[in-house]
Fold this sequence. Notes:
Number of strands: 7
Shape: globular
Oligomer: single chain
Helix content: 55-70%
Amino acid sequence: MINEAALMESRTLRSGVVGRTEALDKVKTLSLLPDGMHVTTAMVAVYFEVGLKAIESVVVDHRAEMEANGYRVLSGSELTSFKEVSGIQSRSRALALYSRRTVLNIAMLLRDSEVARQVRTYLLDMEYAARTQRPVDNPPGKGDSLSLYDRVDERITHILGKAVVPMLNALIETSGEHRRELISLREDVQRIERRVGDHEFRLRHLERVQGPRPYTGVMASIDGMNWREFEHHVAVLLRRDGCTDVVVHGGHGDRGVDVTAVTADGRSVVVQCKSFAPYRPVWSGELQKFLGASFVQHRADVALFVATTAFTPDARTIADEHGVTVVDRTALEKWSAGVPLPVLQ
């Protein structure tokens, strides 16, 4: 059986599993560029929750391996053509692009990232299951029904990811008249692929008897919520941590807050919820706006700004100076997985 240390040290082992890109979606959603196939260095860094230099260092050390798995640097006329086709806006003279295979390749090499570690865990679990499962036409024994459905789900996601989506990509590149319709169809197929993958994860989680991994897969579920579902998710977390009088106000007329509550010791709580894409941070202006709503209009004792993404340094500075508790993507993952939020205790 492949272990994590061997995977990180052996290019041969990595090459054997680099096609299992569905492991990325098990941990969190990887947002793609408008072309639906690539991400930039900044987007990879956001996914793994590390700095740009960490990603660039991996690429420098393993450039040939990255290029074999889809890493490209565009410049000149090639970059111009890509901007026209994909709709991306960039003033850079060169643009590094990573395929999903490249991102998975980085996950197998990046040491100082909890997200990368979780991806490796999923990858090794999937590889172990593929090596040890019985043939599909064998009748399942007692307790094996979930494993059978897991294998069906894996076959569906494999067909969608390896055959249907690449076929649509090829059609999009060569089609002019129906390009928009094909892109829309590809998005629908990818949405189905993600849902089937999530279903497989839930079944596998129920079946698994190994030691618990409390945070794994939490953000993938949250990223699939719309803004209203996210606000209600936060409300559930508040109640779980002992708050009462929890009310969801999100929408027009919310007076600048989305949820209000009262802690177990009687402090008033106001919450701003932002369900942003992982690569879109919370800016300082958004923190400043929340300050007025939380402490001036609502006279809150506890002000929480909960987001599915990171906060800019300026936003964090404002929060620290004025006593706002920011719950970023990492803290939200832990809170959602069952770790109480200290400010509510």
